[in-house]
Amino acid sequence: MGGVATINNDQQNEIRLYLFGQLPEADEESLEIRLLSEPSFVEEFDTVVDEVTDQYVRNELPGSERKGFEDNYLGTAEGRRKVRFTSELLERAAKRDTPVPVGQPGFFDRVRAFWQVPSLRLAATAAALAMIAGGYYLTLRPAMTYAPLALSISTANRGEGPVPGRVKLESGVPGVEVSLALPEQAKGAKDYLVKLVSGDGTLHDLKVEKRDDQTVTVKILASLLSRGQYAIQISRLNPDGTYTRIPGNYYFNVE
How buried is residue 184: exposed, middle or buried, by Cβ count under 10 Å (0-12/13-18/19+)? Predict the structure, then answer.
């Protein structure tokens, strides 16, 4: 029977700093990759989110943390939904004088529930194997239309983070063609380096199919994808031949 993993003080403090927008960029990236690749860490993350949300709604956060939480996590649709839901529960509990369950089911809640049900894990594994086998079969067939997906970059320190894109790979679709909207600091480069971060944290180089002043387009083969959340990272080519990573990630879910 699954349970929530024990959170040590260092992990709890790191997650809180992330929610307040106070975590260094390198640590933010490491934390985001762990969320994609470690189910047990998703449980830890979600537990801290529930605690901080409850403290915010009860007006128990210090001023600097409260402002950071509002500017960072509450700038996302998921954060606003969770705070709204928690506030409603507290109001109802105050009237009924009953215990209050904290937190609204969202992406991380669904991920945690998924990893706690063995039958779902087995079903997802079978689905992933079927998709990989299907991807091999597709390589023997004539070129077919890729599933289109348009994404905008999401940065942890921005007030409004776009909702992750969603794509469903139907039978016979060879993969996904992703159009990445370039942020201002990435525009005008002569070339770009694009990487896919898979669910287990593995990085896959993606070939740039086309680009213009506003977007970069890449294709991801179905054999690299199964159900779950993914992130795409992009770097721009500097005049000296080196690459600079653009802060943030492009997130999407494969259904």
Answer: exposed
**79-88 confidence digits (pLDDT tens):** 788 788 887 7
Closest by CA position to 103, among listed 160, 63, 43, 61: 43
User: Which residues are CB-neighbours of 32 under 8 A, at least 6 positions away?
Assistant: 156, 231, 249
| 14-68 pLDDT per residue, tens | 999 989 888 898 888 888 888 888 888 888 888 888 889 888 888 899 888 988 8
- Kindly tell me the sign of the dihedral angle through the C-alpha atoms of 109, 35, 236, 25: positive
- Give the residue from 136, 125, 158, 138 showing the smallest Cα distance to 25: 158
DSSP state of 172: T
The residue ranges of every structural domain in the chain are 9-111, 125-254
Other beta carbons within 10 Å of 134: 16
Confidence check: pLDDT of 110 > 70: no
Beta-carbon contacts of 6 under 8 Å, excluding residues fewer than 6 positions away, are none
pTM here is 0.46
**57 burial class (0-12, 13-18, 19+ CB within 10 angstroms)?**
buried
Question: Residue type for 158, please?
Answer: R
End-to-end CA distance of the chain: 26
CA distances from 100 to 15, 54, 80, 89, 104 (A): 23, 10, 18, 6, 12
Mean pLDDT of the chain, nearest integer = 78
Structure tokens at 70: 């509002």
Please tell me the CATH superfamily of domain 125-254, with its number: Immunoglobulins (2.60.40.10)
